[in-house]
Amino acid sequence: MAYGVLAIQGDVREHLDALRRLGVDATTIREPKEIAAVRGLIIPGGESTTIGKLISRYGLLDPIRELVASGRPLLGTCAGMIVMAKTIHSAANDQPALSVMDISVKRNAFGRQIDSFEADIDVKGIDGGPVRAVFIRAPVIHHAENNVEILAEHEGKTVAARQGNMLALAFHPELTDDSRIHQYFISMG
Fold first, then answer.
1. Is the Cβ–Cβ distance between 167 and 126 less than 8 Å?
2. Is 174 one of the annotated active-site residues of the chain?
3. Is 78 a catalytic residue?
4. Residues 49-79 as b or e (16 or more Cβ within 10 Å = b)
5. Which residue among the candidates 78, 145, 149, 182 is catalytic per the annotation?
6. How many domains does the chain have?
7. Using 50, 70 and 90 to split pLDDT, how confident is the model at 116?
8. Which phi and psi (to 5°) does residue 18 adopt?
9. Phi and psi dihedrals of 175, rounded to 5?
10. I need a labelling partner for 186 at 20 to 30 A (CA). Which of 36, 38, 105, 179 fits?
């Protein structure tokens, strides 16, 4: 079974490349029936309102929720993290979301596009030193329930968390050559 990357917006190719560098099969996912055939799923960054609307329009909400309920891993990066959250601050009133992870997120918490940056951060569970994190109009986890494990912070703001088989990141690990985050995701399955 392959790992899937939701291919409706964002860094699809980069996530596929990161998975393939680890020697695992990876495929694009666009239709609900394809989700049942993957070992895990990545929701890339992009624009969270658009991703939420497309997930809803293409009938992907329930299949992704079923993937989570089945215990298969789900990784959301940047906007992917936003659509996973149960609460989204500053969201459009009509923004559909998966609402599967017990977190509330704040969109664009580090500023606008011009404020994008890179930083080395320590991520719990990732050996070998800090991870280079690329933050692009990045969200932060404003609040996490007790069943959510905080994995990383930057400047006192939560930027990575795990809840069971779900991994949410405010940054883009696919934009570096470091595959440790993707390896961690695979190990969750």
1. no
2. yes
3. yes
4. bebbbbbbeeebbebbeebbeeebbbbbbbb
5. 78
6. 1
7. confident
8. -60, -40
9. -95, 10
10. 105
In 3D, which of 125, 97, 119 has the Cα closest to residue 182?
Answer: 125
Other Cβ atoms less than 10 A from the Cβ of 1: the count is: 12
Residue with tokens 């559909």, as numbered in its chain: 96
pLDDT in tens, 142-189: 999 999 999 999 999 999 999 999 999 999 999 999 999 999 999 998
Q: Which among 14, 15, 154, 174 is annotated as catalytic? A: 174
* DSSP 8-state code for residue 57: H
CA 10 to chain centre: 11
pTM of the predicted structure, to 2 decimals: 0.96
Confidence at residue 114, expressed as pLDDT on a 0 to 100 scale: 79
Q: What's the domain range around 78? A: 2-187
CATH of the domain at 106: 3.40.50.880
Contact present, 184 and 125 (Cβ < 8 Å) = yes
**Total residue count of the chain as it appears in this document:** 189
What is the rounded average pLDDT for all residues in the chain? 94
Sign of the C-alpha dihedral, residues 34, 37, 38, 41? positive
Query: DSSP class of residue 159?
Result: E
